[in-house]
Amino acid sequence: MYAVTVPEPGGPEALVWAEVPDPEPGPDEVLIDIVASAVNRADLLQRAGLYPPPPGAPAYPGLECSGLVAAIGPLVTDWQPGDEVCALLAGGGYAQRVAAPAAQCLPVPAGISVEDAAALPEAACTVWSNVFDLAHLHALDSLLVHGGGSGIGTFAIQLAGAHGARVITTARAAKHAALRELGAEVIVDYTTEDFVTAVRTATGGHGADVILDIMGASYLERNLDALAIDGRLVVIGLQGGRAAPLDLATLHAKRGAIFATSLRSRPADQKAAIVAAVREHVWPLIESGLIRPVIHTRVPMAQAAEAHQLVESSEHIGKVVLLAP
Ligand SMILES: NC(=O)c1ccc[n+]([C@@H]2O[C@H](COP(=O)([O-])OP(=O)(O)OC[C@H]3O[C@@H](n4cnc5c(N)ncnc54)[C@H](OP(=O)(O)O)[C@@H]3O)[C@@H](O)[C@H]2O)c1
Predict the structure, then answer these.
(1) For residue 257, how far is its CA from the centre of ligand 1 (angstroms)?
(2) Rounded to the nearest whole angstrom, what is the distance from the C-alpha of residue 113 to the centroid of ligand 1?
(3) Which residue stretches of 92-243 are H helix?
(4) Which end of the chain is more exposed for a tag (fewer CB within 10 A), N or C?
(5) In angstroms, how far apart are the furthest CA atoms of the chain?
(6) Which atom of ligand 1 is nearest to the CA of 239?
(7) DSSP assignment string, 64-125
């Protein structure tokens, strides 16, 4: 088969479409003939040599894919060859085939094409596990989503809205109209506006009950200022750096909690539990049309370098899908 390899870490040009050995499914894995994958920010770091795949994961980038089951391992009972699936992967999605744990596969939701389903697993699992399972967002709560135009952000806005939460988000002005259409109530241009003031104004001084943060250090102090009493800050990205002073007095006064999580490094049983919860709680919302994958564009997988350039530029809204030949 062919896959997007990274012979030497570097810029987008480091991605090379090359012939590689076919994967073999393990006893509890399914072999997927890949139709599509999608680009995640983490893939850019992996390509640059800054985020190596966890032990045992395929060497090629790609944290999610969709396609047809080609074969199953002897312990697999819930999938059959020919089934249309999408899967959460630890790597290897930028390829024509991948062996995925059966428990990390999901059916392609009714009403969604196999291609577009590739954009769902990483965002759905990340948002469900952090915003709902961990931070317990409830109806009428206020959620602050940083980077609302990202693959994660576009999904978080919709999922929170579908649960009756109020969504405040940050994004550059060019993305505001699209995010309003997805259900964001207040959209802050972080380049010209202070999001703490915007959150306080929007919530009558209450603050954000939950914050989904992708910036880390550069937003820590302001996130704590924007947090409500009993609020939960979940840091899933460090785009603004890793080290910042933490004012514990502010956290005490707010009885606040800070979580920092990573999906890719979780053990298989935790990923299986998240995927099962997503199938139960999120898939029906997609099938009913309340939530949709937001696809910015689709690019042939062999041209993954172009897709990485686009995501690096942050001009995209939602996901960039890679189509396997
Ligand atoms: N921990 C986990 O398990 C996990 C899992 C998945 C993703 N993530 C993280 O989640 C983040 C989003 O991932 P993705 O793949 O969806 O990324 P993406 O589509 O590449 O989006 C990155 C976003 O960052 C925004 N951004 C840049 N500077 C910003 C700032 N100062 N304030 C607010 N937003 C800013 C950009 O929006 P503008 O164009 O508006 O600047 C862009 O939409 C990444 O940091 C990724 O590492 C973590």
Answers:
(1) 21
(2) 25
(3) 114-117, 121-127, 151-162, 176-181, 195-202, 217-226
(4) C
(5) 59
(6) 45
(7) EEEEEEEEE-TT--S--TT-EEEEE-SS--SBSEEEEEGGGEEEPPTTS-HHHHTTSHHHHH
- Predicted TM-score (pTM) of this structure: 0.98
Chain centre distance of CA 316? 14
Residue pair 183/153 in contact (Cβ under 8 Å)? The answer is no
- In a mutational test of the pocket of ligand 1, which residue from 152, 155, 211 has the highest number of ligand atoms less than 8 Å from its CB? 152
Per residue in 37-50, pLDDT tens? 999 999 999 999 99
Residue with tokens 């249309």: 84
Tens digits of residue pLDDT in 283-296: 999 999 999 999 99
User: Which atom of ligand 1 lies nearest, measured to the CA of 146?
Assistant: 33
Pocket flag, ligand 1, residue 298 (CB < 6 Å): no
| Integer Cα distance of 273 and 99 in angstroms | 19
**Would you tell me how many other CB atoms lie within 10 Å of the CB of residue 244?**
12
